[in-house]
Amino acid sequence: MVTTGVVALPIEEASLEVSSTAVNSSLGSAIASIAPVEGQVVGVFHPVVVTFKLPVGDRSIAERLLDIRSEPAMTGRYEWQDAKTVHWVPDQFWPAHSTIALSVGGIKTTMVTGPAVVGVANIADHTFTVTVDGVAPEHLPAPHHRPFFGQPGVFPATMGRPEYPTPIGTYSVLAKERDVKMDSSSVGIPVDSPDGYLLDVEWAVRITQRGIFVHSAPWAVNVLGHENTSHGCISLSPEDAEWYFNTVNVGDPVIVQENSLEVPRPVEEAPPPPPPPPPASQLPPEILDDPGRNPEVPRVISR
């Protein structure tokens, strides 16, 4: 059992001391939703997502009010998606096959991590390598004389060509879509231009809001494992894409690297967090960008 608590923190030393129940109640009234939802099975890199009811005027105060703890101790960072939504992203992967209890402003929920399904896209080698709980999976689609046959967990792939490179980084799977229509105009490329496209794509695993997926690409089978020809997505054979789609969970990591296949972000025990200061009297009004409540706080848009 991994227990994670998110509690209110004081903002001013002069605040009157009241019970933590009152603080949590005040914070909870400002929160619209928390994800993952109760009992949801997620991947080992799923962030804790908090959405506020109103735009946040001072993000630093909001972050101080959310004190995320876990056992074993985990460190992390805040990433604001927009003026109302913040992600707390762990610095390491959550332990696999674990139950994680969350309490955010008095709102309690749990999430369950499944197996650690880690995908590593190697741009230079044109490969997508998958491990499950640190081990290459045994039952994979038939090779069909494809490149890298016999290398455990290695799928031939094609990624972004030089003018549309697949960005290097570590991503968390955002969604799984059995069928999706991909329209190049959504990323600024006219459909009728030489580089334009309008495609119905199967087995699509989304890893960025902008529209980068791991997906089936039957039109690219002949270049898989040999050349990068996509507009940024990680393209696999239909059989491999279907297997990955059915294996991965939302929240599992996808790591895009140029050369090395070494997987970063191992699960490690982090140093214990510092003890919290005394409780605050109430949720400070400046946390919310509500003109009627605090007209001097400017609206803050997503960075």
UniProtKB/TrEMBL annotation:
GO BP annotation list: cell wall organization; peptidoglycan-protein cross-linking; regulation of cell shape
Residue spans crossing the bilayer: none
Biased composition (Pro residues): 269-282
CDD domains reported in the protein's UniProt record: YkuD_like
Active-site annotation: H215 (proton donor/acceptor), C233 (nucleophile)
Pathway where it operates: Cell wall biogenesis; peptidoglycan biosynthesis
Domain L,D-TPase catalytic, first and last residues per copy: 117-257
SUPFAM superfamilies attached to this UniProt entry: L,D-transpeptidase catalytic domain-like (SSF141523)
Keyword Cell membrane assigned: no
GO molecular function annotations of the record: acyltransferase activity; peptidoglycan L,D-transpeptidase activity
GO-annotated cellular components: extracellular region
Pfam family, one: Big_10
Region called Disordered, residue ranges: 261-303
Keyword field: Acyltransferase, Cell shape, Cell wall biogenesis/degradation, Peptidoglycan synthesis, Transferase
Name of the featured protein: L,D-TPase catalytic domain-containing protein
Taxonomic source organism: Mycolicibacterium phlei DSM 43239 = CCUG 21000
